[in-house]
TrEMBL record:
Enzyme Commission designation: 4.3.2.1
Gene: argH
Species of provenance: Aerophobetes bacterium
InterPro entries referenced in this protein's UniProt entry, alphabetically: Arg_succ_lyase_C (IPR029419), Argininosuccinate_lyase (IPR009049), Fumarase/histidase_N (IPR024083), Fumarate_lyase_CS (IPR020557), Fumarate_lyase_fam (IPR000362), Fumarate_lyase_N (IPR022761), L-Aspartase-like (IPR008948)
UniProt entry tagged with the keyword Phosphoprotein: no
Protein's name in the database: Argininosuccinate lyase
Catalytic activity line of the entry: 2-(N(omega)-L-arginino)succinate = fumarate + L-arginine
Pfam families reported for this sequence: ASL_C2 (PF14698), Lyase_1 (PF00206)
GO terms of biological process kind: L-arginine biosynthetic process via ornithine
CDD domains: Argininosuccinate_lyase
GO-annotated molecular function: argininosuccinate lyase activity
Length: 458
């Protein structure tokens, strides 16, 4: 029989038991459920709701149950969920005293507490992993601070940039991911226990004391809201989706860069796989899997949004389906960040090939537009003039570097000998020192600022 057997004439159908059970998923929350129950028992004793001796007996039993779970001596196969399973085990071990544990709480606020405790720990761990990955980007940027590679828009060569500038682009994406998760953590870190099923309780509980025991800076303000919303989880999933989107884009770059047409990088063997048929293959499977797992995180977000959008206040059993997104997404995020930090450190960068490709095409066209603008030519006029120069070079099979000063003069008398210095590859990259640009001075500022951000406390 269930813990609510008093109301029902018949036992639950076996198929319903199986259908409503979530123990296979939420077993992972056992530590947090016990942590919350210990704090709750201490509060019940402090407020005189149960005798101190009985509270201590319950607490000792909870601690023993945790040890038995972690030693593999206790499993809850077939139970409905981890919350009821632990309570039933307490009652089994201490009898009538154990039945007092659930005083002044509901499974509704108990679930919300477990989720917030769990998610708080997961966010903090993810934040540290993001910092580690940012350090990898910054270290590589310092090591390759003068390496030039082609920069693309529409996957067409656009302008040359510094490899360090590219690496720092992902540093700043990760920085925003970090800030979003830090902000999310503030809203996760709110103590919900004491909300009851939806209306609070008439018993003289002390929610602030429980918050102090569990290291929550504040308690929730509305019992109905406390048990009926999962926006804190949705916010985490949304931030996670953005983080995975960034990792997926990085994966796409590395997959392209490792392919023969690019040959910009070579991923170490330990982070690649081969083919069951073609012995010559070396596949960037780690990057591809991270790109693929991004879809699972998106799915977690969409599934929870869809589940929540039509629920009336307050708690509804649909909300049991929040457990899989809650428990799955952090694992994907942590695995991806850990393996990516190691893989990126062990990736060989073909700097010669990058610079070789950066010299191809008309990489200096925008710089020549700027050259004319500096001499008073309106931008649109200079843009059209350079378009005609590109067309001329394509027809003649030549590049800007191949043209004589006389040929430059045919397009504009403003071109002088210094134009040949302006169209050098390094000139086109190193001089772009507008704030946030790829120039050397701008890059130095970026690195200094990045270093300061990494020194900030999480």
């Amino acid at each position: 029989m269930s813990l609510w057997e008093g109301r029902f004439k018949e036992d639950m159908d076996d198929l319903v038991k199986k259908f409503t059970s979530s123990i296979a998923v939420d077993m992972k929350l056992y530590k947090y459920d016990i942590m919350g129950s210990v704090a709750h028992a201490k509060m019940l004793a402090k407020c005189g709701i149960i005798p101190p001796g009985e509270a201590q007996k319950i607490i000792q039993t909870l601690e023993a149950i945790q040890k038995d779970i972690e030693a593999g001596r206790l499993t809850f196969d077939g139970k409905e969920d981890i919350h009821l399973a632990i309570e039933e085990e307490v009652i089994k071990r201490v009898g009538e005293t154990g039945k007092k544990l659930h005083t002044a709480r509901s499974r509704n606020d108990q679930i919300a507490l477990d989720e917030r405790l769990y998610l708080r720990d997961e966010i903090r761990e993810i934040l540290h992993l993001i910092v580690d990955f940012q350090k990898t980007h910054l270290e590589l940027a310092k090591s390759y601070s003068e390496v030039i590679l082609p920069g693309y828009t529409h996957l067409q060569y656009a302008q040359p940039i510094l490899l360090a500038h590219y690496l720092l682009a992902y540093f700043w994406m990760l920085e925003r991911d970090k800030e979003r998760l830090k902000s999310c953590l503030e809203r996760v870190n709110v103590m919900p226990l004491g909300a009851g099923a939806l209306a609070g309780t008439s018993l003289p509980i002390d929610r602030d004391y429980v918050a102090e025991l569990l290291d929550f800076p504040k308690i929730s303000e509305n019992s109905l809201d406390t048990v009926s919303d999962r926006d804190y989880l949705l916010e985490f999933l949304a931030a996670s989706a953005l983080l995975m989107m960034h990792l997926s884009r990085l994966s796409e770059d590395l997959i392209l860069w490792s392919s023969p047409p690019f040959s910009f990088i070579e991923i170490e063997d330990a982070f690649t796989t081969g083919s069951s048929l073609m012995p010559h293959k070396k596949n960037p499977d780690v990057a591809e899997l991270i790109r693929g797992k991004t879809g699972r995180v998106y799915g977690d977000l969409i599934s929870l949004l869809t589940m929540m959008k039509g629920l009336p206040l307050s708690y509804n059993r649909d909300m049991q389906e929040d457990k899989l997104p809650l428990l799955q997404t952090p694992e994907i995020i942590k695995e991806s960040l850990r393996i990516y930090a190691r893989m990126l450190k062990n990736t060989k960068i073909n700097t010669h090939q990058m610079e070789k490709e950066a010299r191809e095409g008309f990489f200096a066209s925008t710089d020549l537009v700027d050259y004319l603008v500096e001499r008073g030519v309106p931008f649109r006029e200079a843009h059209q003039l350079l378009g005609r120069m590109v067309k001329y070079c394509l027809e003649k099979g030549r590049r800007f570097q191949d043209l004589t000063l006389e040929e430059y003069g045919h397009f504009s008398p403003l071109f002088e000998k210094d134009v040949f210095e302006r169209i050098k590859l390094k000139s086109c990259v190193f001089g772009k020192n507008s704030p946030g640009g790829t120039g050397k001075r701008s890059l130095k500022h970026q690195m200094e600022l990045a270093k300061l951000r990494l020194e900030e406390k999480i």
